[in-house]
Each structure stands twice: as structure tokens, then as C-alpha cells.
Amino acid sequence: KFRSVAFVLLFDLGSEAAAATAVIMNRCSASIARKVSPIEFKVDRPFLFFIRETKQDLVLFHGKYVSPPAAS
């Protein structure tokens, strides 16, 4: 089993978010699970984003991405 918890704090001057995931294992043989490839998300322009709760269609958090970080 996997258990994930996340939170978003909103302040006048910004926001803070965090997440944690725990793995709960039982003593038994494991089934072979297929590997999931990571998703690559390239950003090359500004955009808005929203975190929504879909059952009640509520916007829980929104933000905007303005520009990519400078290359190092």
C-alpha cells in the first residue's frame, strides 16, 4: 500500500506546499508490477495552473508560471 499526504498553505506574500508518501509492506510474496515511465513536462511559456476537487468542482489552489529559471 502507498499512502500520500499533501498540503498547501496560502499567505499574503506567497504559498507553501509539501507532500509525503509512505510505503506499507506486508510479509508476503510480491506480485510483479509493470514499470511506469516518468512523464516529461516541458515548459516554454507562461501558464496558469489549478488544483481542483472534481466531485464538487472546487478550485482548491491556483497559481501562475511566469518564466523558466535561468540556465546554470
UniProtKB/TrEMBL annotation:
Pfam families: Serpin (PF00079). InterPro entries: Serpin_CS, Serpin_dom, Serpin_sf, Serpin_sf_2. Residues 1-20 form the signal peptide. Keywords: Signal. Residues 6-68 form the Serpin domain. It comes from the Eukaryota. This is Serpin domain-containing protein.
